[in-house]
Amino acid sequence: MDFELPSDDDPRRVEVRAWFEARPRPSGRQLAEAGYATPHWPRPWGLGADAETQLIIDEEMKRARVTPPALINPVAINNCAQSLLTHGTDAQRERFLMPALAGEEIWCMLFSEPAGGSDLGSLRTTARLEGDHYVVNGQKIWTSLAHKAKVGVLVARTDPASPKHAGLSQFLIDMDTPGLTVRPIIDMSGNENEYNEVFFEDVIVPADRLLGQLGEGWALSMRQLQTERVALSKPGAIWGSGPSARELVAGLDAIGALDDPLVRDEAARIYIEGEILRLLAYRSLSDRMNAKTPGPEGAIRKMLAAPHGQHVVDLAKRVQGPRGLIDGAAAFPTKGERRGMFDDWDYAFWFSPAVTLGVGTQEILKNVVGERMLGLPREYDPSARGPWNQSQGGTAPQGGTAPSPKAASPTEVAS
Amino acid sequence: MNFSLSDEHRLLKDSAKTFLDAEVSLRPLLVPGATVRDAGYADNWAKIGQMGWAGLLIPEEFGGAGLGCIDLIMIVEELGRTLTPSPFLGTLLGTLAVMKGGDAALQTRILPQVAAGEIALALAAAEADGREDGPDRETVAEHEGAGWRISGRKSFVIDAAAAQMLVVAARVGGARLLFLVDSGKPGVAVALETWRDITRQVCTVTLDRAEAEPLGGGDVWPWVRDRALLALAAENTAGIRHVLDVTAAYARERVAFGRPIGAYQAIKHSLADMLGQAEASAAAVLYAAWALAEEDARAPLAAAMAKAYSSDAYVEAAHRSIQIFGAIGFTWEMPNHLYLKRARANAEMFGASREHRDRVIDLARAELAA
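C-alpha cells for the assembled complex are given below, as produced in the milestone run.
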C-alpha cells in the first residue's frame, strides 16, 4: 500500500508539463489529438494511459489553467462516447468521436422524461422503424446542454410489446433535425439555463444511427450512467466542480468565523468528510490500476459526495447571516483569479438541491447500494413484467415507487 | 499510488480471522451480570501470546515480529470485530511508549518479555476529567536520589489490573512525561471500574510515591497518542462493518407484512448509510495507518480524522443496529448492546471526537496556510 501521489519530477509529469508549456492556449482539437481529452482510451483517441498518468494529465491541465475537455463536453466524454468504442460501427466512430473529444460538437443525453426520471424504464418516447429510418415521437426533460448540443444520445422505445426494460434502444441523433424543438428550463438558481425540454414530432432518424443492437438501450443507458471516467475531481459543491471543504476552512479562517466553537466543529466535520472523499476517489483510481472492474461502489461515493457538497455551501451560507440572501453575495473575500461559476459560492449554494437529484437521486442511489451491495430485496415494480404497452393501458402512467420532483407536470408546456 | 493491501497483509488478516472465530466466544457475556472476567480475558491473552501478536511491532532484535502500523491494523481490526476480551490493547499502548521512550537498557529488559507474552502492559494517560492529553493535574513525578517517584491517581486505564508494568503520564514542572512503573512494587494500587463495556477491563490506578523510570522526553506522548488513535479507529471500523453485516443479514431474513424488512426503504436506506460510513471509516483508517507507518507529516491529522470520524460512525451504526433488530436487539442476551457499549467507550477514550476535530482545524489551517 502506498498513498504517495506522482511527484513533481515524475517523467510522465515532466512530459505533460512540457506539452502545455509549449502550447499555452491549446485548442480542443489539439488536446484531443494529443490524447488528453480521454487519456485512458486506446489510440488514436487516447493514450491507453493508466490511471496515474490520467491523474497527472488532469493536474497538469489544471496547472496550465486549461479548461478540461470533460467540462466542455461532459456527456460525450464522461458518459456516452465510450459506448461507440464498444458498441458503435466504424462509420459512427469515424463520424462522431473526434468532433466530440475536441469539443466541436457538444453532446446531450436524451434520457429523462416527464413520466420517467428515477424510473427511467417507464419512458414513453417511441422510435418506429419505417423503411430505412426511424420516426421519433415524444418528449424528454432535464436535458443538460440540449440548447448547445449538436448530437443527442436518445433512448427510446422501439418495441412497446416487450417488457419495459427490454423494448428500449439508443440512437445518435442530430439536434437540428426538423421536428425537434428545444425549450430551456430556468432552474431555481436563476442562472443561465442548464436544463431543457426536448420535443419530438415525427423526427426522422436514419437507421444507421442506431447505437448498439435493437433492444440494447437499457443496458447501454445503465452503463453510461454508471461509468464515470476515473474520478479525479476533488470533492466539493456542484458534483466536485465547485468550492471544496479545504476552501471552506480557508474562507472561514479568513473571516474569523473559526473562533465560533460551533462553526469550528462543523467545519472540521465537513473538512474530514472532504478528505475522506478524496481518499475514496483515489482508491477508485487505484482499483483501476489494479485492474478491478468498477462496480456499484461508484453509487456509494456519489451517495456520500452529493450531501457533502451541500454541507460545504450550507455552512458558508449560514455564516453570512441575512447578507447571504442578497443575490450574488460573496461568502468569502476572493483572492487570485476567479474560476467563473465554479468558485461562485452563492451560485453553488442555490444550485445545491440539484446534486442529490441529478445522475441518480439520493433515494435511488441508496436503493442501488442496499440492493446491489448488501443483497437486500429489490424494490417492487408492478410495471416491470409483461408487455409494456399492456401495463400502461394506453394512458399516462401513474407515479412509480419513487416519484421525483422531476416528474412535475411538464405536459402542460408541451400542449 | 496503490491503495490495495498486499498479499502479506491480507494473509495476516485472514489468519487472525480464522484464529479468533475459532477461539473467541462472546456467549458467556450474554448473561445478565456478566463481567469481563467471564469472557476468557486471561485465556484469550494466553492464546494471543502464542500467536505472537504481543510482539507484532517489537523489533526482531527483542524477539518481536518487527512489523508496522498497517500490519497492526490487520490484527486490531479482527480483535475489534470480535470484541475479543484480552489485555492486547493496554499492552500495545504500553509497548509503544517503551519503544519510543525507553533507553536501550530498559528496552532490552522489557520488550523481550512482552514479545514472549510473559508480561502485559498498560498506559495510564487520563485522569478523572477524562482528558487523555493532560495536564496531569492529579499526578506528579519527582526526582528522588538517582530515581523518580510518582504520586497521584490515573483514571480509565485499560487493562491495568492485568499489567505487570504500567506506563504512567505525570506532570514534571509544567510538562507531561511518561514513566514506567512496576505495578507489583509498593505504592501502586489498581481498582477495577464497573465499566459498561464488559468486553474491556478498565481500572483506576492510585500511586503513592511509587518508583518510576523515565521514558524519554516530551515528544513521546504525541507519538504514542497518534498510534493509540489509530488502534481505536481500527477497532471502530471493523466494529461498524460487523454490525452492518449482521444487521443486513437480519434485514434479509426477518419478515414483516409479507416481505423481508430490508425491502422497506426506511430500513434499506439506513443500511446503505451504514455502508457509506463503513467505507469512509475504512479509507480514513488505512490512510492513517500508512501515514503513521511512513512517519508522514500528515500523520497526526490523519490519526485525528480517523478517530473522530470512525467513533461517531460506530456509535451511530451500533444504535441503528439495535433499532433495526427491534426489541430483541435491546435484550442482554443479544450481542448488539456489546457493540454499542464498545462504540460509546471508544468514542470517549483517548479524546472525544470534538476534541480531535478541534485539533483537525488547527492542523488543517497550518496545512492550508503553507
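Strands of chain B lie at 121-124, 140-144, 147-158, 165-172, 175-182, 188-192, 202-214, 255-256, 259-260. The mean pLDDT of chain B is 96. Further analysis is deferred to the final report.
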